[in-house]
Amino acid sequence: MSHALDAAVLKNLEDGYLCSESVLLAAAGHMGLAWDRLPAIATGLGGGMGGLGHVCGALAGAALALGMAKGRNTPGEDLFACMADVQVLAEDFAERFGSIDCRDILGEFSIDLRTEEGRARAMAMRLPELPCKDCCLFAVRALTRLLPAKA
């Protein structure tokens, strides 16, 4: 199953989706879920929470996918099963990349998206050639263990 998710997330990146959007879309497809607003939900998480360099968008997109699959719809429902899976995912992610923060993972490629210069530089970069691709692949591969497959 991992090969299908790998292909989906790489295609999403190639098509121009952000890391957060790419992971969420691939995971939703894996679960057989579709909604035309899915990428929009994850847009603000790209670049480490609105381009601020905080939590990696790939990890944030994966957390959204876990919420779609295992989250609650009412306050009385269990929230800890979903949270436990997000904790495992985040810990594994940090172990693999040394951090869960976009700016730390990108290192020399880190860009300040609050400036015109930073946004122009970001648009000129090939996202799949940066560590973002590896983060997205790691996230969707981790999700294969944690998400239900479509029926």
TrEMBL record:
Family matches, as InterPro entries: CGCAxxGCC_motif (IPR010181), Multihaem_cyt_sf (IPR036280)
A Pfam family annotated for this UniProt entry: C_GCAxxG_C_C
Domain of life from the UniProt record: Bacteria
Protein name, per record: C_GCAxxG_C_C family protein
Species annotation: Solidesulfovibrio carbinoliphilus subsp. oakridgensis
Upper classification of the organism: Bacteria, Pseudomonadati, Thermodesulfobacteriota, Desulfovibrionia, Desulfovibrionales
